[in-house]
Amino acid sequence: VILILFSLMFKYILYSYINHISYFFFAFGLSFLLLGICYLFSTSNWYFEKITSYECGFDPFSDTREPFEIKFYIIAILFIIFDVEVIFFFPWVISQNQLLIFGYYTMYIFYLILIIGFFYEFKKGSLDWN
Amino acid sequence: MFYFFLEKLIFFLLNIIFILLCIALFTLIERKVMSSVQRRKGPNLTGIFGFLQPFADGLKLLIKEIIIPSNSNFFIFFLSPVITFFFTIFIFFMIPFYPGHTILESNFSVLLLLAISSLSVHGIIFSGWSSNSKYAFLGSIRSASQMISYEICISTIFLSIVLISGSYSLIDIVNQQLDV
């Protein structure tokens, strides 16, 4: 029974998103097609100097797969957290005319928490580059 | 089922041709405006006013040699331009050009647009990391951090538009501006 229910649900999802899925594959096919055309028409003439990775004229000293500054990572994480918080606003915004006073001001509390978090990050110094 | 997909495919191909033409002419307009700002002529030799310049550039890019660096990750390196182009093209599907001529009619196209535009960072990250070159890697990190930081601004702008129109559908948002 569970299996039948699951298959029905899957079929329903598949049929309601058939447009998205088909265009997904069409777009993917198109982007592969352009690369394939390039592969067909281009001439290949490579030698050792050409296929080494570019390093200002000399042979590369070392691999690039070594640790880099964690600051980039921290900045990216900060922005992603704020991105997620912006996404929380979307359902609130769309249901403005159905919200009562409680639902309306709940988001203000969320906003307050967000601002407190931002100032915490600011005081901790995770936004400083040095 | 077969005719459904055939109809979809023909509609898709017709639309995609004009979308690609649109992209080509947009690049030409950008180059023309930049050149006139800097008191140059810009591309003007191929065709009238350089109308054939983007197509000439595209044809030139088609016969360019594919070089895959020896110490790169072949699969990701090969796939990253495909991913970038795929996401860029997919965003174009949701834009309503004319009534009944939207390729992908969705009730949540704003959310879909935001999600896909944030996914398009991955193409740049993949291409920078998989090429195993320091310059490409640093460039990809800078570009990705820029794209991530613009993400919040653009989603906040979308938020205000959704607040005014009360709908996630781009078609509804356009229809709301009929009386303006």
Would you write up a description of this structure?
The complex is a heterodimer of chains A (130) and B (180). Chain A has helices spanning 2-16, 18-41, 48-51, 70-94, 101-124. Chain A is mainly α and 130 residues long. The longest helix of chain A is centred in the middle third of the chain and has 25 residues, at 70-94. Chain A starts with a helix and ends in a 6-residue tail after the last helix. The relative contact order of chain A is 0.04. The mean pLDDT of chain A is 82. Chain B has 180 residues and is an all-alpha fold. Chain B has seven helices and no strands. Chain B is globular, with a radius of gyration of 20 Å. The chains are: A mainly alpha (130), B mainly alpha (180).
Keywords:
heterodimer, A: about 130 residues, mainly alpha, 5 helices, B: about 0% strand
Q: What's the topology here?
A:
The complex is a heterodimer of chains A (130) and B (180).
Chain A: H1 2-16, H2 18-41, H3 48-51, H4 70-94, H5 101-124
Chain B: H1 2-37, H2 53-62, H3 74-93, H4 109-119, H5 121-130, H6 134-165, H7 170-176
Helix pairs in contact in B: 3-4, 3-5, 4-6, 5-6
Structural class of chain B: mainly alpha
Main beta sheet of chain A: strand number and arrangement? none
* Largest beta-sheet details of chain B: none
Number of helices of chain A: 5
The largest chain-to-chain contact, stated as pair and per-chain residue counts, equals: A-B, 48 and 57 residues
Uncertain stretches of chain B? none
Distance between the ends of chain B? 42 Å
The span between the termini of chain A is 61 Å
* Mean pLDDT across every amino acid position of chain A: 82
Along the chain, the helix and strand elements of chain B come as HHHHHHH
